[in-house]
Amino acid sequence: MKIVTSAITIACLAATGALAADHGACAAGKTLEEGMLTIATGNPAFYPWVLNDAPESGEGFEAAVAYAIAEAMGFAPEQVQWVRTSFDEAIQPGAKNFDFNMQQYSITEDRDRMVDFSLPYYSSAMAVLTTEGVVEETGATPEIAGMKDLRWGAMAGTTAMPILMDLIAPNSDPLLYGDNADVTAAMQAGQIDAALFDLPTALYLSAVVVDGGKILGQFPADRTESPDQFGLLMEEGSPLKECVDAAMTELTESGTLAAIEAQWLQDATGVPVIQ
Amino acid sequence: MTETHGTVSAAPAVRPTRRATYEARVRRRSTTVAALSTAAVLLAVVVLVPMAPGWEAVKRSFFDAEVFARTFPGLLNAFLLDIAIFAWCAPLIALTGLAIALCRDVRSPALFPLRMFGAVYTDIFRGLPVILVVYLIGFGIPGLGLPRPWNSPYIWGSLALILVYSAYVAEVIRSGIDSIHQSQRSAAASLGLSEADTMRYVVLPQALRNVMPANMNLLIALQKDVALLSFIGPVEIFRQAGVYKSLMANFTPYVGAALIFLAITIPATRYADYLLNRQRRRQR
Amino acid sequence: MTGKLSLRGVRKSFGDTEVIRGIDLDVGEGEMVCLIGASGSGKSTLLRCINLLEPVDDGTIRLDGVDIAEPGLDPRPVRRRIGIVFQSYNLFPHMTAAENAMLAPRRVHGRDRAALMGPVTALFRRFGLADRMDHYPDQLSGGQQQRVAIIRALAMEPEIMLFDEITSALDPELVGEVLDVLRQLHRDGMTMILATHEMGFARELADKVCFLDGGVILEQGPPSSLFSAPSQQRTRAFLSRVL
Ligand SMILES: Nc1ncnc2c1ncn2[C@@H]1O[C@H](COP(=O)(O)OP(=O)(O)OP(=O)(O)O)[C@@H](O)[C@H]1O
Ligand SMILES: [Mg+2]
Q1: Cα gap A167→B123, rounded to integer Å
Q2: Do C79 and B191 touch (CB under 8 A)?
Q3: Which residues cross the membrane (chain C) (predicted)?
């Protein structure tokens, strides 16, 4: 036991030492373009993950994480370039135009068969977005029993749908939409009462986009079953994965990741937990 | 009529004529040639495609048997919604299209506004992409503040399909009406039939029969465009396939959906062609 | 007395071309009048004017003394009383022979199918088509189709029948069966106007023959005098070409 531990310690020390001595060695020859790191984000990229749809600024949670990881891998900010992809482009077979893709991809076993994920950079709580009007009308409270009768919506491409069926199991079939804007349009048109989003997105939508928007409650990230964790998406069998994971471990252990989260994501302790 | 021709040529126990023997030989030869060339093409596809360097990746992404088995029942189930939407839209489209076509044919000056309405209607709805109409009507009208259940995306999405498709159907029917020779109207008028009766009993039955194949093609297009309703919420097969695709990061569910669509549209297309051919024979 | 039908100064133009240029014509009850003349002389147009398929520009058409050419008058009651049969039959192809004959009486006179069956069957039997009632037009020969077209017009029980070259689209051996129909009608006392190229038939049955030329009736009279001693040079020229 002792031997094993010390072996790991030595290995880690050696690794850090190597990183310190020769930043970027682990990524050498493994990126699309030598000496450059190509990162993909959505088109457009949404608040609060990327501010003003401008990832180059490093503002916004994912943009900031991206530059931190790049640095840990030995890339200076000017060695980072951005591309845009849709979800489908990220998973289609054939050569990719990015080293890793970052747009709130939840890590799931099914997806992992087809693509590679890094270690998670964020564990997302899920939150229920609704409107003041609905709360007044239906008397909805942050309790699962009372939420079953609501008319539910979600974004089609996300893991929100299985989580919704899993945690809430609504009485009528949920309606699904292609993007945030359509979900909120349906909510504004009174076609749905509530929608399930990751918490940061829900906070943003309720504060800025939906008239009279309200967060009914959250399912905390550390709930036992199917936690929703975001990872960087890479081509299946990507040679870069090891290097990215090492950087991610370093950022997590040094507390850098937590600091970035505190800076860019709103504190959600005020949101009631759904019973 | 046609049956009699069939029985005559198939009469048994008659020695084949020289011509019949010759034609049988030609037929046999062309069947053989067709079979050989089809086999060659299939062979090339089966052998060459897997030799492409990306084939393994494509196979995993598009033709994953396990994913297919897991998602196919769900897709079939979602397809029921497509069928339901189609089933209630199609008759309403037929009625609206007919009404609009008749509007465009009115001759009395008092009804000129009706005629103009028909023209404007078809111009507008044929000029817009279906998806745009689905969005505008599916979100726009309920957004005015209708109470439930009157703001349902099923109602307004269907209305969008009905508006667009009835514009096309109206044009098809109108061309059918125009194709009926003036002498038919003359004959009806000479018997003292009113304009309305002439339309209903003389012109329309012939016109509708003439445009049946064209309308069948519109029906097939409608069957596919029902999927556009998924943009405003309903989880029909196209959306369901998209959900499976993102959850599994695999395109196989789309292949499943395509197969289900084809299982419906290919027979329908064949049937439309059959109608068209019969039509041509009649008119000869 | 002017008789059943009486035209005075009837004129009709299509655009700038005047096709009927002042026609006077009297047809007595039960008479058969034949219109002859070169192609384009206006025979069809005149017939179409008489049952108001074409509105006349000027002049009067009196039916039993009442002017039916009055502009603005509803033409439908008149058309019920005056039947017309066209050169090209114009049967409704999507209906059987019997349905063709019953449509107008049902819709215009409001009779039901059962009540019509008797008289319509009688008409088909009378013209030798009893076994063709359930056939569609494209299952009938030209002569049979033309007879169905006549039956269709007769089923409305018209007072006058107009026939526009009804045999000229037929094979020669089919002409006879259609002319037989006309003979029967004449015997039964039907008032008829007939545009025709069948000079032999006109000579045999017509009470009066009118020679149309350039939209006017150049000469008219009983067939005996008009065919054997035409008074006009142009009539003579026409007759010498067709006889
Ligand atoms: N709807 C119409 N519009 C314009 N001109 C017409 C129309 N109908 C007939 N005409 C013209 O009127 C003239 C007389 O035509 P009509 O059909 O009455 O002649 P017809 O004596 O019946 O000839 P045919 O023996 O060839 O049938 C012709 O010059 C024809 O071109
Ligand atoms: Mg004529």
Answers
A1: 49
A2: yes
A3: none
Domain count, chain A: 2
Q: C196 CB under 6 A from ligand 1?
A: no
Measured CA to CA, the distance from residue A173 to residue A165 in angstroms comes to: 9
Mean pLDDT score, B23-40: 90
Residue A271 lies in a domain: no
A104 and A130 both lie in a single domain: no
Instruction: Give pLDDT tens digits for A32-88.
Output: 888 899 999 988 888 889 988 999 999 999 999 999 999 999 899 999 999 998 878
Mutate to test the interface with B, among C49, C91, C94 (most CBs of B within 10 A): C94
The yes-or-no reply on C/B contact (3 CB pairs or more, < 8 Å) is yes
- Residue pair A166/A226 in contact by the 8 Å Cβ criterion: yes
Note whether B248 contacts A192, CB cutoff 8 Å: no
All structural domains of chain C with their residue ranges: 3-242
The answer, for A87 touching chain B at a CB cutoff of 8 Å, is yes
Decide if pLDDT at A141 tops 90. Answer: no
Q: What residues contact residue C29 under an 8 Å CB cut-off, 6+ apart?
A: C3, C4, C189, C191
Instruction: Let me know if residue A273 belongs to a domain.
Output: no
Label the pairing between strands C160-164 and C191-195. parallel
ipTM of the complex: 0.90
pLDDT value at residue A223:
63
pLDDT-based confidence at residue B13 (cuts at 50, 70, 90): low
Give the domain range for residue A147: 124-223
CB neighbourhood size of B33 (10 A): 10
Residue for token pair 């009766």: B197
Interchain contact, A189 vs B151, CB within 8 Å: yes
Cβ(C44) – ligand 1 distance below 6 Å: yes
Q: Is C45 in the pocket of ligand 1 (CB under 6 A)?
A: yes
Q: What token pair was written down for C65?
A: 């003394």
Ligand nearest to the CA of C46: 1
**SS3 category, B14:** coil
Distance CA A42, CA A25 (A): 29
Show which of residues 191-210 on chain B sit within 8 Å of chain C, judged by CB atoms: 191-194, 197, 201-202, 205-206, 209
**Distance (Å) from CA C39 to ligand 2 centroid:** 7
Contact between B186 and C90 (Cβ < 8 Å): yes
Q: Is residue A1 part of a domain?
A: no
The answer to whether residues A90 and A12 belong to one domain is yes
**Does A49 lie in the same domain as A29?**
yes
Query: C104, B192: Cβ pair inside 8 Å?
Result: yes
Residue in B132, B84, B140 with CA at minimum distance from that of residue A191: B140
pLDDT for C19 equals 94
User: What ligand is nearest to the CA atom of residue C19?
Assistant: 1
Q: What topology does CATH give the domain C3-242?
A: Rossmann fold (3.40.50)
B122 closest CA partner among B43, B83, B175: B175
Same domain for A87 and A145: no
User: Does A33 reside within a domain?
Assistant: yes
| Distance from C-alpha of C155 to C-alpha of C214, rounded to nearest angstrom | 34
Q: Are residues A117 and A12 both part of a single domain?
A: yes
| CATH code, domain with A65 | 3.40.190.10
Return the pLDDT at B3. Answer: 41
**Chain centroid, CA C170 distance in Å:** 16
A19 lies in the same domain as A100: yes
Provide mean pLDDT across the span B188-199: 93
pLDDT of C212 above 80: yes
Q: How confident is the model at residue B50 (pLDDT cuts 50, 70, 90)?
A: confident
Which residues 22-41 of chain C have a CB within 8 Å of chain B?
none
- Same domain as A173, residue A93: no
Residues A44 and A169 grouped into a single domain: no
Q: What is d(CA B280, CA A175) in angstroms, rounded to the nearest whole number? A: 46
Could you read off the pLDDT of B129-147 as tens digits, one per residue?
999 999 999 888 887 877 7
